[in-house]
Every structure is written in structure tokens, then in C-alpha cells.
Amino acid sequence: MAFSGGVYTLPAGNPVVTGTTISSSWANTTLSDIATALSTCVLKDGTQTITANIPMANFKFTGLAAGSSTQDSATIGGTETFTNKTLTNPANTKQNLTDQATITWDASSGAVAAVTLAGSRTMAAPTNLKTGGRYTLIVTQDGTGGRTLTWNAVFVGWGSSTMPQPNSTAASVSTFVFDSPDGTNLQLNQGATFVDDNPIVVGTTDTTKKIRVEVDTNLTTATTRVWTAQDKDITVLGQEDVASQAAVAAASGTTSFVAPGRQIYHPAMPQAWAVFNGSTTGTNAPTTGYGITSIARNSTGNYTVGFSFTFAAANYGMIGIGMDEASTNLNSISRLNGGTYTTTAFQFATYHVSDTISRAVTDLGWVTIAFFGRQ
Fold first, then answer.
1. What is the greatest pairwise CA distance in the chain?
2. φ, ψ at 289 (rounded to 5°)
3. DSSP state, residue 242
4. What pLDDT, on the 0 to 100 scale, is given for residue 157?
């Protein structure tokens, strides 16, 4: 009968009683059955090959040696080492650390640890790290926020820089992923304060800040572009470094830049200018120009310009030149005595000037005028 359900039962005719005659049929049947049963046993010397799965019925193997290949049985110690080396740890390896003045972390209880800060704390050196292991620390700010961590020296920032601080916003979550090269130190693999994983800010500066260089899709195929940085400290100016209108008007400051829309306010720049035909100009915009909304021909050679802005005071200056190809006389432009001279309008006249210094108010074919001052 051999084994049935794990129990061996002798074949029929067994056990024998005193006086039973030994026969070949009894002996052969019994011995053959025993041989079959023994052939299905697991031998302690490992000389036979298992031919089917062995149900353990919730029992365990004990005294196993550490496996040395992927086909060997895994021990608890071997599984722990493997878990600590994987990026994604099983959920049951996460442990909640106790929030206290000095926070401790026993890595043997989990390669993923979490803590909520209710104050500024010191992070102690973790114990039971594995060489080559990967560990994750999840830091949450409480409802107040602004909590900081003093990192033990075994924690090293990206590129051997100073460890960054967790996000200070109340209830925010910062995730720090570390690799342990030697079972003692933890090298920051990725900080949650980085938007992507390629920061180039390295050193003792704030590593939560970085410079990002992006390449658009218009690069020519098979063309290499080289960006060479100068061997010097460079300050990158931002929007807050644009000179204000007041600073440009005062011509002060040397550390900010002037945006195109504010360049006009510099006192060395003409605040308004125009080119027009003195004979045909009516109440309309100039032929070409800037800062002048209208040019009115009041009478022969008499004009008033209206500005599109307001000068700071009625002490601005005007220069102009007139041209009339039909005359051999000299031409001039001057402010009209008693005429309009305000912060929003200016009245002037154009003249032919003879060799005898006599002059006559005349419409000139082309007139160019420019105004300087401060708005």
C-alpha cells in the first residue's frame, strides 16, 4: 500500500502472528511495498531529487544556510538585505519614527521611515544600515510648519553638499531618498525640494535652488551646440532687477538693467520727436515720430504740438531744424514768444532767415523737432 496521506501501512497479511509460515508471496509483496515507500522519502544526505512540490502545512524549515544563488532558499537575513537594496520597499517595511528632540531610526525595522515634526529636531545616525541599501525618509511638517532638521554627519547631500532642509510650509511633505555606500553613511539620492532630478547647484549654498537650462525643439539635427560658462561668479538678473522709471529718469544705479519700455525715461533720450510737412499739417498725427499725438498748424509757420505724456515740469528743451528746397534763405525754428509752453503742449514758429538777419514766418517743407526733459 506504501504511503497514503503521509502514513505508511503494511500490505495485507501483516503483521504476522507466531506460527505463520514464511512464504515467497507474503515476503515479496511486503518487501516490494516497503521498497516503494522508501523510494518516496526525502533523504537527509540529499542524494535524491524532489519530484513534486512539498506542502509544509504551516511548518517551517529551520537552520537554513544563507543562499548563494537565485535558485537557493531565502533566509530572513537574506531577504532583509535584498529588501534594503531595492528602490521600492514592501509596504510592511515602513515604520513611523518617534518625534523627539533627537530622532532615531533603526533601519532593520524598515527601509522606509516617516516622522511628523512638531518642532525643530536633530536626526541621529541610523543604525543597522546595509551596504548598498536604499532608504527613504518621509518628513511631514505639523500644522505650524517652519520646523528644521539638524542632520547627523552621516547624511550627505547631493554631490557631497550640505543636506537641504525639508519644505517649511505647514503640513507639507518632503521625501528624502538615500543610498548607503558602506552601511554607515547615507548619500542623498533625491530631495523632494527638487522639481526634477538633475540639479546643478553643488556646494555649501542652498541646494534647494538650482539653475535649469532647457533646449527647445528648433536645434538643427546632428548639430552640437556648446554652452561655455565663464570661470567667474555670474549674477543672473531677474525681473526684480529691472530699473524703475524713477531710477531711469534720475540716471542713477549701475547694477540693474533698463527694459526697452523704460529707456525713453532717461534724460539723455528725446522724450518726443516728429518729422512733418509744415505746409500741409493739420490737426493730426505727425508724418512720423514718437510721443506726439497731434500737430496743429495755427497759422502760417505757427504750430502747436501735443504730447502723449506729461513732462515733470515746463522746463524741458526743444531742438529743431527746418528745410525748404525752394528757398535759398537759411531756415530756423524757435519757441513762439507768448505761445503755449506747458507740460503737455508746446508752440513754436518756423522762419526763413536772410543774409541780412531779417526773418519771416514761413511754412517749411520739412520740419524735424525733438524734446528733452523728464517725465
1. 171
2. 160, -170
3. B
4. 86
Order across the sheet with 112-117: list the strands. 94-96, 112-117, 134-141, 173-179, 186-191, 155-156
Task: Give the distance from CA 360 to its chain's centroid.
Answer: 71
Beta-carbon contacts of 71 under 8 Å, excluding residues fewer than 6 positions away, are: none
Size of the chain, expressed as the number of residues it contains: 375
With a CB cutoff of 8 Å and minimum separation 6, the contacts of 215 are 225
* Through-space distance between the first and last CA atoms of the chain, rounded to whole angstroms: 114
Could you write out the DSSP letters of every residue in 72-128? SPPPHHHHHHHHHTSSS--GGGEEEPP-SSEE--BGGG-SEEEEEESS-EEEPPPBS
pLDDT in tens, 126-160: 999 999 888 999 999 999 999 999 999 999 987 66
In tens, the pLDDT along 280-331 reads 765 444 567 899 998 988 888 899 999 999 999 999 999 998 877 665 667 7
What are the beta bridge partners of residue 261? none
Q: What pTM, to 2 d.p., does this model score?
A: 0.40
Chain-centroid distance of CA 133 in Å reads 27
Q: The C-alpha cell of 114 is what?
A: 516617516
Are 363 and 300 within 8 A, CB to CB? Answer: yes
| Number of neighbouring beta carbons within 10 Å of residue 166 | 25
The continuous run of DSSP H or E covering 26 comes out as helix 24-39
Judged by phi (left if over 0) then psi (alpha if -120 to 50, else beta), residue 168 lies in alpha
Average pLDDT over residues 97-106: 96
Q: Say which DSSP state 33 is in.
A: H
Amino acid 297 reads R
Block residue for cell numbers 532608504: 135
